[in-house]
């Protein structure tokens, strides 16, 4: 398995599918601690990404992620659009114009994405945001790639599993950033919607390589 432009297009296609399938769940998560728009935002954004991919088929994984960033920035309002836009833009820059993504490069792209989200939103781990999914995901990918033994699929799986655990770990947290922070202690007991959608995105990366 190589992570080439076809993989990237499949990844983004599976992201769009996951956002459509989980639209109502993400709306409900955001209804509990936000303003109910996250599912709609993500579904609309990734459907627009699909349209763009069909219009201008990207030649490299980096180009696919850059197109995604631009589309999400222009189509997704609220906090998540600029945050995901920055994440995909930084990941695209990390990949450059390579035709294929090596395991360590994928891990590096996840770290760059996480750093972009932190630079933009200033959240720290434990603030109950998407950073709580991206940080363990990037670290798990780095660890899996550093083993050397890690196949590319193992690196993708490590990232997805860590993102899912990270998203679940936001349930008891009290939000300190974003709209959910207005609720204070009442934000505890609910999963952060952005952490949930981040885990869906990283799980889709596995599906595209399987
Ligand atoms: P909005 O909050 O503007 O309605 P969304 O509902 O689409 O936007 O996205 C909310 C998600 O954005 C949250 O669940 C959280 O994961 C993420 N988020 C909000 N603010 C920040 C921040 N400062 N840093 C990182 N992530 C954030
Ligand atoms: Mg919202």
Task: Tell me what you see in this structure.
With 210 residues, the protein is mainly α. Helix content is 70%, strand content 0%. The chain is built from 9 helices and no strands. It has helices at 5-21, 23-33, 38-55, 61-75, 80-95, 103-121, 131-146, 152-168, 193-209.
Short descriptors:
single chain; 210 residues; mainly alpha; 70% helix; 0% strand; globular; binds adenosine-5'-diphosphate; binds magnesium ion
The coarse silhouette is globular
What is the H-and-E element order? HHHHHHHHH
Largest sheet: none
**How much is the average pLDDT?**
97
State the total count of DSSP E strands: 0
Terminal-residue CA separation: 8 Å
Please give the count of helices: 9
Draw up the topology in text:
Layout: H1 5-21, H2 23-33, H3 38-55, H4 61-75, H5 80-95, H6 103-121, H7 131-146, H8 152-168, H9 193-209
Helix pairs in contact: 1-3, 1-4, 1-9, 2-3, 2-9, 3-4, 4-5, 5-6, 6-7, 6-8, 7-8, 7-9, 8-9
The protein binds adenosine-5'-diphosphate (ADP) and magnesium ion (MG).
Brief rundown of the structure:
By secondary structure, the protein is mostly helical.
